[in-house]
Amino acid sequence: xxxxxxxxxxxxxxxxxxxxxxxxxxxxxxxxxxxxxxxxxxxxxxxxxxxxxxxxxxxxxxxxxxxxxxxxxxxxxxxxxxxxxxxxxxxxxxxxxxxxxxxxxxxxxxxxxxxxxxxxxxxxxxxxxxxxxxxxxxxxxxxxxxxxxxxxxxxxxxxxxxxxxxxxxxxxxxxxxxxxxxxxxxxxxxxxxxxxxxxxxxxxxxxxxxxxxxxxxxxxxxxxxxxxxxxxxxxxxxxxx
Length: 241
Ligand SMILES: *[C@@H]1O[C@H](CO)[C@@H](O)[C@H](O)[C@H]1NC(C)=O
Ligand SMILES: *[C@@H]1O[C@H](CO)[C@@H](O)[C@H](O)[C@H]1NC(C)=O
Ligand SMILES: *[C@@H]1O[C@H](CO)[C@@H](O)[C@H](O)[C@H]1NC(C)=O
What we know:
Elements: H1 2-21, E1 22-23, E2 31-34, E3 47-48, E4 53-54, E5 61-66, E6 71-80, E7 90-103, E8 108-112, E9 118-122, E10 131-134, E11 139-148, E12 155-161, E13 170-174, E14 211-212, E15 222-224, E16 226-230, E17 236-239
Antiparallel strand pairs: 1-7, 2-5, 2-13, 3-4, 5-6, 6-7, 7-8, 7-9, 8-11, 9-10, 10-15, 11-12, 12-13, 14-16, 16-17
The structure holds 2-acetamido-2-deoxy-beta-D-glucopyranose (3 copies).
């Protein structure tokens, strides 16, 4: 009995402790925040979960959306320079969403829904195909600040990474935020990769459709896609199986 009461007290202390770590959700974060080019943006125009497809933004950039009730969504489109061969940049498109918390010490913790995140990685000089996979990465932002940008005169969000390094500045783009549904979009499926039996697919005819699902491919942890990828230099590269 004493042990049980002690255990109850201890768990009570643990709960209090856990609650004390979390601060109220910050209202100043609510909205969609985009990097300067303002063409990479969260929401259905970036990632289409029904057709499993990314739409390539006009420019590289990043975007974060936050809701008043604790949900976030993020979109990344990055060209990764290749110092060995400047003509061979790698391309990376990432999307994820989930819940976020503000800690009492001012840090933000982003906890993605692990099965929902997606990444498209393209390294044309090393691999024949772009690689489409699940993606999840919990994030800790050590701190953040919302201010009025002195030059652009619009609200600006500065996020500082876990090590204190600043992310590129983000500017208020939309409020209410532009987001996909905040619930789980892709319930967990466990299947074997379908790379071996994937069939040749159709190439998309419009450039903004980045990748089409390979016909006949089953959902899996890793998909291989046909498609086109526009490099940072603007040339169109075709990848076939
Ligand atoms: C989440 O990411 C980790 C690290 O990359 C990986 O090991 C894990 O399998 C992923 N989870 C899901 C559900 O995709
Ligand atoms: C706040 O606490 C978290 C979790 O303990 C820690 O990772 C983070 O670095 C802390 N932030 C600051 C600003 O100290
Ligand atoms: C960014 O794009 C959104 C949607 O297209 C637009 O409403 C907003 O005004 C833009 N913001 C800036 C700073 O150009």
